[in-house]
Specification:
Blueprint: H1 6-24, H2 30-42, H3 46-59, H4 66-79, H5 83-96, H6 103-117, H7 121-125, H8 136-151, H9 158-185, H10 189-202, H11 207-223, H12 226-238
Length: 241
């Protein structure tokens, strides 16, 4: 077991999920089971929908509803916050259906799912700013939405993807700002300057970029670099908050 890979564990989880769904969901014709799953989706009963859709997927993997069942599972997993299962289903669907007409939606859902991985409901409830947490899911979401805009510029999901990219850009910029501030508080002056300048170059049109100038200025002051101090003060003057 200690040699079992993450993908192997995920596959095992999927198999266990399907097996338990088969035990829970009555053995009825595919059409009836699909209708019940659609009713559950429409009513927002995500767990019930997942159980029925997983049973369909397990019992009729090549049936008439196969592709739509996987699409519905992607959505239900996302709504039920089963994000790892959602991403696994997205990967499976795109691998088996590389030219499907709804791939723009699948890519959009992958972006939403990656975004959701960055969310922590406790932080939302208590309004806690955790800009310093690992931004890897945000980078993946940004990449997903960017691919959607490049591949499907006329997609009905393009406009919303563009808006989400703007939000994600600010999230990434705030992470860089938090990192620069961390270096400053640790008196790692050069690291603070480098991270601030990287932020200004990568995300120049963000509030975080402007705020990083203050960190940069303080680091230069600690190093006693008078010319750099004057240049940074001029930049702050030209870019007021």
């Amino acid at each position: 077991m200690k040699h079992l890979t993450l993908s192997g564990l995920l596959a095992l989880t999927l198999l266990v999920g399907c097996s338990s769904s088969d035990e829970i969901v009555p053995d009825v014709p595919a059409s009836a089971l699909y209708s019940e799953a659609q009713m559950a989706l429409q009513s927002g009963s995500w767990l019930t929908a997942i159980e029925q859709l997983e049973a369909l997927d397990s019992r009729y993997p090549f049936g008439a509803y196969s592709e739509q069942v996987q699409l519905d599972l992607i959505y239900a997993y996302y709504k039920n916050d089963d994000l790892a299962l959602g991403l696994a289903t997205i990967s499976r669907f795109t691998r088996l259906n590389p030219t499907h007409e709804k791939l723009d939606w699948v890519l959009y859902m992958r972006g939403l799912t990656h975004m959701a991985q960055d969310r922590n409901f406790m932080h939302d409830i208590f309004n806690i700013d955790r800009s310093d947490r690992d931004p890897e899911p945000v980078k993946l979401a940004f990449s997903d939405f960017k691919k959607l805009l490049e591949r499907y510029p006329n997609s009905p999901y393009a406009e919303d993807s563009q808006k989400r990219m703007y939000s994600l850009k600010n999230r990434l910029a705030n992470y860089d700002l938090a990192t620069a501030d961390f270096y400053l508080r640790r008196e790692a002056w050069i690291a603070a300057i480098n991270r601030s300048q990287e932020l200004q170059k990568t995300f120049p049109d963000t509030v975080a970029a402007r705020e990083s100038l203050e960190i940069q200025l303080e680091a230069y002051k600690q190093l006693g670099l008078e010319d750099a101090i004057k240049r940074t003060e001029k930049l702050i003057e030209l870019n007021p908050l």
